[in-house]
Amino acid sequence: MKILKRIQEIKNIGNNRQLYNEQWVETKKALERYAIEDGLKVSEDIIGNLFCRLEGYNRSKTISIISHFDSVENGGAYDGIVGILAGIEALGMLKKKFGTPEVSLEVICIAEEEGARFKTTFLGCRALFGDLKYENLKRLKDKQNISFFKAREVIGLKPFSQKELDRCQRNDIITAIELHVEQSRYLEKTQIPIGICTHIPGQMKIRMVIVGEANHAGTTPMFERKDALCCAAKIISFVEHLGIKYEGVTTTGYTINAKNATNIIPSKVELIHDMRHHDPEVFNQMLEDLTNYAKREEEKRGVHIEFEKLVKIEPVELSTEINEQIKKVTRQIGLRQMEFKSGAGHDVQIMSSHDIPSGLIFIPSVEGISHRMEEYTKNEDIVNGLNVLALTIKNLSYGLIL
């Protein structure tokens, strides 16, 4: 199959495909080339989402295969990419064997999902539903202090207005399916080749800037200090506590200590917290608890805390009807499958949150490794995933059972 060779080609481009950088640009060019080779029509929107389309008899309705082609810093060649490449090859196979489908089919190659460069996730998919605002994009900067719009300018993309951003919105998508590497070890441990996702957790990214007061580390008494880093340490510990208490997952993976000197009391610290949970009520309780704790620390220590929700995506339950179709296909092919909840967020989550019936197919990740250059999925598992995806799409679009 073409997909195995194409994965290697993407790997050769590099594993740092952050939004609007050179590797991102080269990857998008490669995906466009693959789609054209497989007989698909290619277009893109103002954000950089790439659409690889096979028109159906009914062009007003679209079944979408969706995944992302950006990566975390020094990530892998499988996360996101496998789903896109499988989708392109699947549509090429279906076109060659069955011709025109009842409704249009489209691989949506999402420009940005990870939030790696500008610290806000799902930019690409959120653009499809009017969830992005121009004023918010203007404020985004990467760790080199390069703005979102400057990053676009560097690679030759033109500025745009809110009106142009609004044109990204779609109302023709009737179903969305994503194929993704599992990024955990359930499938590998059980030696089951196909996972079917039932739920995706809510995810929020909370930015805090803690402003204290710089002073001499040797001459300032402990009880007179307004130490931003000590306050940050307490909050980071509390965020970990929330994950344990509520049986969710919580991480503070981004920290900046402005002074970062051994003999100066820290005056400014920036944190970004990542908190996730499958239960909507608990998800929101975690946010309330964190907010209240931060306020107490602010008053106790005499510091000031700026609090910003970078992104908040609600938990979703995926379509049982779509999942039944995926199960039917696995039985046809003769593959075992298991259902379970995802721990990670996925683009199809945004689709589902906008009431589009959605499904998510997992294939095994070796040792559960992801967001690292060592991530790997075996060739046979990739082929199995492609076959399940292709047959599911065939059943949905040519037999039109929706």
From TrEMBL:
PANTHER family, from UniProt? ALLANTOATE AMIDOHYDROLASE, ALLANTOATE DEIMINASE-RELATED
Q: Does the keyword Metal-binding apply?
A: yes
The organism's lineage is: Bacteria, Bacillati, Bacillota, Clostridia, Lachnospirales
Tell me yes or no: is tRNA-binding among this UniProt entry's keywords.
Answer: no
- What does the record say about how the cofactor binds? Binds 2 Zn(2+) ions per subunit.
Q: Which cofactor does it need?
A: Zn(2+)
Q: Which Gene3D superfamilies match?
A: 3.30.70.360, Zn peptidases
| Residues where Zn(2+) 1 binds | H68, D79, H180
- The protein's superkingdom reads Bacteria
User: What name is this protein filed under?
Assistant: Zn-dependent hydrolase
Positions annotated to bind Zn(2+) 2: D79, E114, H371
GO MF assignments: hydrolase activity, acting on carbon-nitrogen (but not peptide) bonds, in linear amidines; metal ion binding
Q: Report keywords, A-Z.
A: Hydrolase, Metal-binding, Zinc
